[in-house]
Every structure is written in C-alpha cells, then in structure tokens.
Amino acid sequence: MVGRMIICCLLFSLNAAGQEQNTTDSVSTQESKPTLMGRFHQVQQFLDTRAKAKVDPNYIEVPDKPWRVILRYKENMVNVDYYHSADFPATHEHTEWDLRFEPPLASSIGFWVGYRGTGFSYSKSLSKNAGRYYSFSTTGAKYGFNFRLRRFNTNDAQFSATDHKDGQADGERYDTAFNMPTPVWIRSVYVNGYYVFNGRRYSQAAAYNQSVIQRRSAGSFLLGATWYQSSFDYSEIDNAFFMIIGDGVRRIKVHQANLGIGYGYNWVPLRGLVINAMAMPTVSVYNRVKVYKYDFNYYLAPKEPVDDYGEYNMQTKTWANGKPAKPLTMWKKGDNDLYYWDGGSETSYSALRLNLDLRLGIAYNWKNYFIGLQAQYNNFTYKKNQSKVNIFDAYARLSLGVRL
Length: 404
Fold this sequence. Notes:
By secondary structure, the protein is mostly beta strands. It has helices spanning 2-32, 36-53, 205-208, 240-245, and strands at residues 60-61, 67-88, 93-101, 106-115, 118-125, 132-139, 143-165, 168-169, 174-196, 213-214, 218-233, 249-270, 273-296, 298-299, 312-313, 318-319, 326-327, 340-350, 354-366, 369-384, 387-403. The longest helix has 31 residues, at 2-32.
C-alpha cells in the first residue's frame, strides 16, 4: 500500500511538472513570436545590409539614416514642333509649314519622400494651365527606374510657312506668333530604366536623389531603356484651319520604346560634393503612331475657280457641282457651309528614330542635410507620311533635403 502511494505521488509530481513546463514553453513561444513592427525592422535591416554590401565603401557611402524628405522647386520646359508639307504636282507647287508650341516655363513646387533609393514625389504647378506632375523612382547599386506623368494645355503658338514653285522658294517665309482659338492638350508618360556596369564604385543616385554619397570620383557605362507615350490633341473645331491644312489630322498618339548605351561620370572635387554628367543616345526599336482625322468639305490646294461650287449637301457630302470639297482659299471662320465629320484613324509603325537623354546633377552633403541641382533633357521624334512631330522636354530642379 505504501509503495502504491509513493508511486502515485511521483506520477502526480511528474505530471504537474510537465504541465508547468508546457505552460512555460507556451509563454516563451508567445513572447518570441515576432510582431508586425519587428518584421518591419527585419525588412529594414535586410535592405540596409544589402545596400551596404553592394558597394565599395571607399567610393560610395551608404548613410546610416535611411529615410529622406526632400523639398523641390522645378522649372519645366516643353517645346512641341509640328511640321507638315503638301505637294501639288499639277501646278509644280509645294508648301511647308511649322506649328510650334512653346508655353512659358512652368514653375512648380513639391516634395519627395522615400526610404533608401525608393520614393514618390508630387509637384503642384505655380503657373497657369501648366498641369500637374507626378513621378515615382527607385534606385539601387546596379539599377535605376523612374516614372513621370504630365498633362497640360496651351494656347501659345508660333506659325511659319514657306511656299515653293518649281523647287524654288516662292515669296518670303511667313512667320507669326499667335494664340490658338482653343487650347492644345499635350499629355506625356515617361518610363526610364538603366543598368550600371560599375555599380560598386559609381552611383547615379548620388547626384539625383542623394540616397548614397559618392566619396571618390568614378564613372561607368550604362545600359538604358525608355518607354515614352504621348498625345497631341487640338480637336476642337475652332482649330479647323490647322486641321484642314494638316490633312485632317486632329490628334496624334505615340507609343515608343527606346534602347541605348551611354556613359556617366561622378567627379568629387571635395568631400561631400559630387558633380555628375551623363549622356545616352537611344534608338527607337518600337514606334507606333496613330492619327485621328476629320474629313472636311474644304481642302488645301492652290488657287482655282470656285464660283461653280454652289451649295453643299451634307447627305451626299458633295457640293452642287458634284465635288466633295473645294479649295481652302474661299473658307473663312464662321462660314455656314463649313462641315466636318469623323474621318477615322490610321496606324503606322516605324523604327530607328534617334532620341537623346542628357543629364547633369550637382549635390552637396553635410551632416544629415543635402542640397542638389539637377537638369535633364529629352528629345523624342515621330513621323507619319508628310507630318513630323518633335517633342523637346527639359527641366531644372533645386532640391533641399534631410535624412531621418
């Protein structure tokens, strides 16, 4: 009996000890389970360790404070040059004209917030009708990516025209500045990515978003890819004159992919200061142009008799003499016999357009603060039959930031 009691007491003690141990293990497991904030810190540590491991510390310094808040002031310039030509074989005449849109410099103020090389920016224009500007960017030791979007309208235009007869200029070149009857809308989306071959010693980001600090001078070849799409729209009928002389074109949409190789160099004349220059010519490997048109009961032609045209019939889309359109020389804004209708769209593809990406950046770092000045210039071209559009897009930006 005594033996049984001793055994029962031992079993009870062991069971109680096991329960206590299980309770302790359970509490310990709960305490060691990572919280959401703990996981966030683990991700931060991983990114920080990776950022420092990818570069040569003798050339590139990765700041201990990873967060940056940047205030930006920007001046943006856009120049759109729309060229068109028309031939009249029967009279041996040829005419060329340029319609250029050069809105005033667009001033904007905004901010950039990000962690290491990744962040988002927003800018609000200080100029009338200059639109809004959004961008997103991310950079690493070997790569960079940025996206920007802008949409605006303008009335400011410059018109030039030259007539030719038998291959010779016929009269003086006509050139005038004026306001478009209704605004021209221009929208652009720019996506750019690049690969740095010497990413351990050269950083593009050191001069443009200050995620790292260049300590010694270095350069590198860069491989770049660009996706650019834009639309150029002046479809309001008050602009009919320009649509008629432009073969009915009222809107142009472009999708363009470019590849290129360039070179960038960071010069460090003194501690904390870096001056960067980069040039990258690119070639379009995909160039899709889609034009939308109106059809009119007028057309661009040399002077010819128009007395026998009579009234225009919208049902048959012909004049009384059976012709579908008559020369533009008799049309005046406000005439009741100006008619137009949807002329459909045309899509064409071409390649091997040469574009250019130029950049200049200066940055100075002290303690946890930095100041920078950046400039970028892009040129995009596209062509459709006898029409050609050049877009020049450039900006200069002043930045003041702090590391947190």
